[in-house]
Amino acid sequence: MIKIRDLEKIYRTEEVETVALNKISIDVKEGEFVAIMGPSGCGKSTLLNILGLLDDPDNGSFLFNNIEVAHFNERKRADLRKHNIGFVFQSFNLIDELTVFENVELPLIYTGVKAGDRKKRVEEVLDKMQIMHRRNHYPQQLSGGQQQRVAVARAVVNNPKLILADEPTGNLDSSNGNEVMTLLTDLNEQGTTIIMVTHSEHDARYSHRIIRMLDGQTVLENIMV
Amino acid sequence: MFKNYFKTAWRSIIRNKAFSLINITGLSIGIAASLLLFIVVQYEMSYDRFQPNYDRIYRVVTQDKFDKDITYNSGVPVAALKALRTDLPNIQFGALKSIYGSQVTVPSAGNATGNKFILKSGIFFIEPEIFNIFHYDWLVGGADALKDPNNIVLDERTATTYFGNWQQAMGKTMVLDNAITLKVSGILKNVPANTDLPLSVLVSYETLKQYGSAYNHADNWNTTSSNFNVFALLSPAAKAADIDKALLQFSKRHYDVMQTNSVKRNFLQPLGTIHFDRRFETLGDHVTSKTTLLTLSLIGLFIILMACVNFINLSTALSVNRSREVGIRKVLGSNRSQLFAQIMSETAVIVCLSVILAMGIAWIVLPYIKHIASIKEPLTLFTPKTMGMMLAMGLVVILLAGLYPSFVLSKFNPITALKNKMVSASVRGVSLRRGLVVMQFTISQVLIIATAVAVSQMNFISKADLGVNKEGVLVLSSNGDSLIQSKQMAFKQQLLQVPGVQSVSFNSDAPSSDNTWSSNFAYNHQPDEKFQVTLKFADADYIKTFGVHLIAGQAAAECDTSREAMVNETLLKKLGIKNANDAIGKEIRMGRNKWLPIVGVMQDFKTNSLREEIKPLMITSNKSFQFLTAIKLRTHQLPHTREAIQKIWAQFYPDYAFAPSFFDEDIAKFYQQEEQLSLLYKIFAGLAIFISCLGLYGLVSFMAVQKTKEVGIRKVLGASVASLLKLFSKEFTILIIISFFIAVPVAWYMMHTWLNNFVYRISLSGWFFIVAITGSILIAWITVGYKAIRASLANPVKALRSE
Ligand SMILES: Nc1ncnc2c1ncn2[C@@H]1O[C@H](COP(=O)(O)OP(=O)(O)OP(=O)(O)O)[C@@H](O)[C@H]1O
Ligand SMILES: [Mg+2]
């Protein structure tokens, strides 16, 4: 599903040049659950942003479902993104002005799903995430764990093939964190590919494979049994 | 999709209550103000446009070129009418003569002497041909009603006033100036108020032919009265330029043979310019210069621009807080154009709300504005034109206010937008905001300077020393006939018996008036001078009654016809006479009249409105022109004195209505239009300044939120409240100073030009500019101060924790 080769990302500011990704090569197969770990500043988020088509690399190749996307323009990336990829962030990133229901509904609006179908889909996922009773609440009225469940619901509502999660449990206590990890595992078992950045060895154990990074490169890959 | 846009739009308006309130207040006031100005301007522009032949109607006017100056007259000599018809047979001509202050007596059941009405706004002796040129609707009759002598036509309103209802009026008789019996032969539908030809009482022109001498209407080439107007209807194929050429030949043929000291030319004045050309007298109630309309339109444009600037400033500032939302939406697959549409629709929601509010404001304020702008038309907001304007304005504002913020926000990079909130403090956003603030302050300072200058000039004029005494002089007018004149002496004796009356004078004109009666003249048996002399006729007590000062000689003796003359200093100056005493005993004559000895020289007083220079003046007595009675009153017991005067008037002149006015009030009327304009300027300039303060307040509030943390840190480090205030106001103060330097030349040029309209004017002193800069800095500081003090007084620990 994902095949990147010699990918480079360099941040240039006036004084310094930061090599965030240094000729990194990774493969992810469909249906895999991959965890990315590494010390702060090693380039995990940068990698995830590129994988999620939020950012473009400076060099190298990125095949997404066998299509070269490394140099797609913003419009094409947005198009590919909204049909194929869901995101979960450490800080939830829900829109404060919208209710739970409306937040989850948003990706469906952007992909042009009809209103009637949208309602059905949203209710389905909210049910699955056990947050249905909070459908008309606003994000501030929810606990962190509930907010993250909404964020996961929003990420999966479009049935994406790939979910990218950047420290999804970073802001949660362990019981809420475990709940989210169970959700992700369930999704993976139903066939969704998941790539997750985490600092927690405990969470990483939910995955099939751990990619360890240092200074913009992969240093180690352990396969979980 | 749109439902979703509007939902988020609505919620974000609610969430940012303060900013939305500022935006909606500013926009609605701005839109309402512009709309009202639009209504005023478009009303002035609409004058006589309801005439179907609007583009083909012209007035034949006269230009008099003297050695040094040129005068313009809206009329032509009476004899020219016939000549025009003979010489230019392909053109439809129609003539009318307006007379002001006449009296009509209407028979009344309850009143044996009949009801009397003074027609201050004029009656028209009018040819039926006028109705081939102008189109009017008739209730009864038509142009033919004015074919025969002694016929009168009334409009519906006047007929109702005189006879109770207009149906009753037909066929009734009434008496004009106690001499001419007229029969009502037609009823005209009320003429719209937006006309310079306010026809309401029309008498057939044939009647005037019989009573010409009573109304100074002589069929000759010598005198040109601005009250005698000839209108022309050109055929669709005719070109005005060709007719003007023909009129030049016409003028040469008819005027150059006369030996005068000026070159007289006729030319066409298009109907479309009559309402705007101040060179000519108007038959309507006012002339508006295009500059005034342009100024008002500009103010309207400025106000709406300022409101848009506020919107842009606040939205781009706020976008910092919204970057996260934009980031999330992008991550979820929204593309730029969708985001753009979303933010535009938010703008649209705010603008629509403002438009609705603006309608409400305009609806409430319109009656006042109508009053100030003296618009008589029953104007309403809900005409297709104003509605269209509203719609157009709404759209333009949506684009103007929404485009830039939408552009900026939708461009955000999602990763950076999600990472932190401080995205749009990007250099470009800030410098644009500064630029817009500078623009706002420039506009407000120009407006402050302009308003201050206009108001001071108006004060200057209303308080200006005319050189005569203008207080406490009551003026009674009557259209004189021999009867009035024969009773004058006895009338005066009776008046002087009233304790409150100090002196009484019969005259043709007050010292300062809009009279334009002038004549060519000769001095000391020389040939005619190259300039004209203004004429006033008055008895000996004129000097005493109006407090005119004599610098040499004495008042001219009182007599029925002219025997002695007084002149003013300006006349001597123009003649090159240095010593006033040298003129005493010399002779002067007007036109081809008798030579009169000069017996007195008057110290200069303002002979006309202060827009014009003092004119060379000659005063002599001639009973047949002295229709005005000026009464100098003692200041105590005014109402009592007035009552006594009215009684005496009724006793002497039962056939004449008592219509007194005070001299100073008559003078104030000269400047009524300026007075109204300066009020309009004051109101709308005030609004513009208010809107720019509103924007400033919004920006500062935003700054205060942004700087909460900085202020907290600084306070922990020991900063004083004063130093924090400085932190807030420094930038704005600099921006104000920059805008001041842009505003000064603009305002100077504008007001310099405006003041040039007045001969007597204030000088553009530095004070106006100092007031503007200190005023705007003060306003800004007050605006900034409140927010800044609140921010700096906040508990620093809280401020730090909240981030
Ligand atoms: N916009 C940027 N401009 C400049 N440098 C950047 C930018 N974003 C990231 N970097 C740099 O690139 C490197 C990789 O950053 P990245 O955010 O990918 O790290 P990370 O592995 O996600 O760290 P963390 O675990 O702390 O989230 C860091 O050195 C960071 O300073
Ligand atoms: Mg990271």
TrEMBL record, chain A:
<comment type="similarity">
    <text>Belongs to the ABC transporter superfamily. Macrolide exporter (TC 3.A.1.122) family.</text>
</comment>
<feature type="domain" description="ABC transporter">
    <location>
        <begin position="2"/>
        <end position="225"/>
    </location>
</feature>
<dbReference type="GO" id="GO:0098796">
    <property type="term" value="C:membrane protein complex"/>
</dbReference>
<dbReference type="InterPro" id="IPR003439">
    <property type="entry name" value="ABC_transporter-like_ATP-bd"/>
</dbReference>
<dbReference type="GO" id="GO:0005886">
    <property type="term" value="C:plasma membrane"/>
</dbReference>
<dbReference type="InterPro" id="IPR003593">
    <property type="entry name" value="AAA+_ATPase"/>
</dbReference>
<keyword id="KW-0813">Transport</keyword>
<keyword id="KW-0547">Nucleotide-binding</keyword>
<dbReference type="InterPro" id="IPR015854">
    <property type="entry name" value="ABC_transpr_LolD-like"/>
</dbReference>
<dbReference type="InterPro" id="IPR017911">
    <property type="entry name" value="MacB-like_ATP-bd"/>
</dbReference>
<keyword id="KW-0067">ATP-binding</keyword>
<protein>
    <submittedName>
        <fullName>Phosphonate ABC transporter ATP-binding protein</fullName>
    </submittedName>
</protein>
<dbReference type="Pfam" id="PF00005">
    <property type="entry name" value="ABC_tran"/>
</dbReference>
<dbReference type="GO" id="GO:0022857">
    <property type="term" value="F:transmembrane transporter activity"/>
</dbReference>
<dbReference type="GO" id="GO:0016887">
    <property type="term" value="F:ATP hydrolysis activity"/>
</dbReference>
<dbReference type="InterPro" id="IPR017871">
    <property type="entry name" value="ABC_transporter-like_CS"/>
</dbReference>
<dbReference type="GO" id="GO:0005524">
    <property type="term" value="F:ATP binding"/>
</dbReference>
<dbReference type="InterPro" id="IPR027417">
    <property type="entry name" value="P-loop_NTPase"/>
</dbReference>
From TrEMBL, chain B:
<keyword id="KW-0812">Transmembrane</keyword>
<feature type="transmembrane region" description="Helical">
    <location>
        <begin position="732"/>
        <end position="750"/>
    </location>
</feature>
<feature type="domain" description="MacB-like periplasmic core">
    <location>
        <begin position="490"/>
        <end position="609"/>
    </location>
</feature>
<protein>
    <submittedName>
        <fullName>ABC transporter permease</fullName>
    </submittedName>
</protein>
<dbReference type="InterPro" id="IPR050250">
    <property type="entry name" value="Macrolide_Exporter_MacB"/>
</dbReference>
<feature type="domain" description="MacB-like periplasmic core">
    <location>
        <begin position="20"/>
        <end position="247"/>
    </location>
</feature>
<feature type="transmembrane region" description="Helical">
    <location>
        <begin position="679"/>
        <end position="705"/>
    </location>
</feature>
<dbReference type="InterPro" id="IPR003838">
    <property type="entry name" value="ABC3_permease_C"/>
</dbReference>
<keyword id="KW-1003">Cell membrane</keyword>
<keyword id="KW-0472">Membrane</keyword>
<feature type="transmembrane region" description="Helical">
    <location>
        <begin position="21"/>
        <end position="43"/>
    </location>
</feature>
<feature type="transmembrane region" description="Helical">
    <location>
        <begin position="762"/>
        <end position="784"/>
    </location>
</feature>
<keyword id="KW-1133">Transmembrane helix</keyword>
<dbReference type="InterPro" id="IPR025857">
    <property type="entry name" value="MacB_PCD"/>
</dbReference>
<feature type="transmembrane region" description="Helical">
    <location>
        <begin position="389"/>
        <end position="410"/>
    </location>
</feature>
<feature type="transmembrane region" description="Helical">
    <location>
        <begin position="339"/>
        <end position="369"/>
    </location>
</feature>
<dbReference type="Pfam" id="PF12704">
    <property type="entry name" value="MacB_PCD"/>
</dbReference>
<dbReference type="GO" id="GO:0005886">
    <property type="term" value="C:plasma membrane"/>
</dbReference>
<dbReference type="Pfam" id="PF02687">
    <property type="entry name" value="FtsX"/>
</dbReference>
<feature type="domain" description="ABC3 transporter permease C-terminal">
    <location>
        <begin position="298"/>
        <end position="414"/>
    </location>
</feature>
<feature type="transmembrane region" description="Helical">
    <location>
        <begin position="431"/>
        <end position="455"/>
    </location>
</feature>
<feature type="domain" description="ABC3 transporter permease C-terminal">
    <location>
        <begin position="683"/>
        <end position="794"/>
    </location>
</feature>
